Amino acid sequence: MTNGGLRSRAWPLLFAGIALLYLYFIPYFPALNNPNETSRVYQIRAAVELHKLSVNEQIARYGMVNDLGKRDGIYYAGKAPGTTFVGAPIYAALRWIDAARGLPPASAFRLLYSLRLVGALLPTLAFVLAFRRFLRRYVSDEPAADALATFLALGSMLLPYALLFVNHSLSAATAFGSVIAVEAAARSLDGERGPARWGSGRAWAWLALAGLLVAMSSALDYALLPVSLMLMVYGALKIRRRPAGLLAIGAGALVPSIATAVYHTICWGGPFKLSTSFLANPEFAANQSRGLFGVVGMSWASMTGILISPSKGLLYLAPVFTLGIAGAAAACKLSRERRLAVLCLAVTLWMIVYAGSLVNWDAGWTVGPRYMTVVVPFVVFSMGLCWKALSQRAKAVLLPIGIGLGIASVVMMTMTSVLFPHLPPEYKNPAFELIWPLWRDGITPHNLGRSLFGWSGRAAQAPFVIVLGAVLLYLVWVASGSFLHPRPSVGRRIASAAGAIAIAALFLGLASIPRTEAKSVVQTGTQWIRRSVWEPPIAAAQGTSSPRAR
Fold first, then answer.
1. Is 435 among the domain residues?
2. 544 and 454 in contact (C-beta within 8 Å)?
3. Which of 217, 300, 328, 392 is the most exposed place for a label (fewest CB within 10 A)?
4. Distance, CA of 225 to chain centre
5. CA 382, CA 505: separation in Å to the nearest integer?
6. Facing residues of 74 across strands?
7. Domain span at residue 338?
8. How buried is residue 191: exposed, middle or buried, by Cβ count under 10 Å (0-12/13-18/19+)?
9. Burial, 243: exposed, middle or buried (Cβ in 10 Å; 0-12, 13-18, 19+)?
């Protein structure tokens, strides 16, 4: 196959592989009673079954859970309402389908899986497609765009939080999605695809979508309000403050804004009252009472924790973001799209400062610093802007470094997230102290291989590993620089690919060093997770039952 043929066919095949990697494992562990998901599910059940937002009946039926708010003796989900807006229609549709087919009410597994699949995973995959298409407008080298989109999908925090019904990946998708919509509106207004006609509705529709996505990002995560304001300012500047355009953005933003205000009034007694003022857990409430909504200022522990610690540091679990953050700064100077580059850098720096300033910066059982997930597409896109501005010589030098760190990121994030996306903070290096032994021992959660074919152990792991290996091989080909102009010699291509492999291997080797000094912590925690938490039970791992039977 020629290089041109490989380039033209690579992305559809690559995206199919990414989609399979997202869909293959189903990390379902009801024994954890994960409050981040359970509190949302309680409220969605209440909204659809009882037409109310309070969850007292759910608590009486299923048990108490953290992450709740309480006002006048009535409990509600202690979260921003965006996931309720997303999840309630999904559950309502599921109940309608089940009733039409004469099926019993959905089990706890089926409900949660439906919410995860339709409410988080598939929207994230759709965002990856939109992001890559948008990126291609700025990155003419198609393999480079493929690699960046792969880093976004598999080498970042987008993956673990697309596998759960939480807000983080959705927040990232809606925030950057508003940028995509604003840029599409600007192209329409500037006549890139013909004369701009407001009567055609194209620009109106894009700007309304941008406003809706901006407001939805804040409805999903209150902490993104400053980011939403940045995005609004960027949108206004991009369309040159056209009154009609500003009106369209505002009209789109009204929908989630009004819904959020009504939700706040019902739950907390006023349109501008937030759940953070009514948290039921005394420890959570105490954290929120410190500083300004729990923002107490950066510290050495918090900044090293969210950036470089083996426990959950972004640059440790996804080292390609080291280049990405540097690229975000460089793009402000090098890129012709300076305004867009400045927006990406501003969002990135703000969220790093915010996450590092929280009293609860460690954020519990997480993969990476989850409060910073929104920066992922902005940083990856900045890498694209920087790549476009580089000379061919600079590209040839940086390519093996970037791809090497990207391969390490894909391996770390993917292999860590899909089995157990709930890393306990007691582990100082959970990726290698908890997760890698699961791979070594052939232990898997529910998965498509088990459900469809009854596979277990390493046989169930094999399809995932094979597809991931194919993705990594493509990244190695990209690292060779075969697509660069002028095309490097065979020796240089081999050296570049080998350099990327060496960088990835060196990083993974250093990262695998155990960090938790108390061996008993690792042994006790691992035994508890395997014996009391794991689904399907490890003792029955060779069975053929599937989650569909639950």
1. yes
2. yes
3. 300
4. 18
5. 26
6. 71
7. 3-32+112-125+141-533
8. exposed
9. exposed
